[in-house]
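User: Reviewer 2 asked us to show a designed sequence for the structure in our supplementary figure. I'm pasting the structure tokens here. Could you produce the per-position amino acids so we can include them in the response letter?
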């Protein structure tokens, strides 16, 4: 079952918003979307310094795509169909990759697993001869704040 805390995460205060409504990329920029999602309950937030951006620039150096990413949650059953010795080695590699506390946050579904991390795990499976795709406990579409 999906944890409601995983859905619709608010924009972090530290994520810089963009005030440039005339930007050619404003409709597809996460920084502009973040500004539009700012509510009166947000007492403060960071902004992009428009003076540091050339108005003639074809591509803004602060642009972040507003495309949502498929995040995985939880790894409680990730190794269920893997032979014990292989699962033991995979778990050891995952602990080394994430670190103990970070691994257990991902394992319990308290933190999402990014597409880059999912690719790492998929490649790790392939290195151990496991051809089936890793299966996580849940998936959501999220903005990469």
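Assistant: Here is a per-position design you can include in the supplement:
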């Amino acid at each position: 079952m999906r944890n409601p805390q995983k859905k619709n995460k608010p924009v972090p205060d530290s994520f810089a918003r963009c005030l440039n409504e005339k930007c050619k990329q404003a409709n597809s920029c996460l920084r502009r979307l973040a500004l539009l999602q700012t509510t009166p309950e947000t007492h403060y937030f960071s902004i992009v310094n428009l003076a540091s951006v050339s108005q003639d620039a074809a591509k803004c150096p602060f642009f972040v795509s507003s495309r949502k990413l498929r995040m995985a949650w939880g790894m409680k059953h990730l190794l269920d169909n893997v032979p014990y010795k292989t699962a033991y080695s995979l778990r050891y590699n995952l602990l080394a990759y994430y670190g103990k506390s970070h691994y257990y946050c991902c394992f319990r579904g308290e933190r999402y697993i990014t597409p880059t991390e999912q690719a790492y795990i998929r490649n790790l499976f392939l290195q151990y001869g496991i051809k089936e795709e890793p299966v996580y406990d849940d998936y959501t579409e999220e903005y990469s704040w």
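For the response letter, you might also mention the following. The chain is about 30% helix and 10% strand. The helical segments are 30-36, 84-98, 100-108, 115-127.
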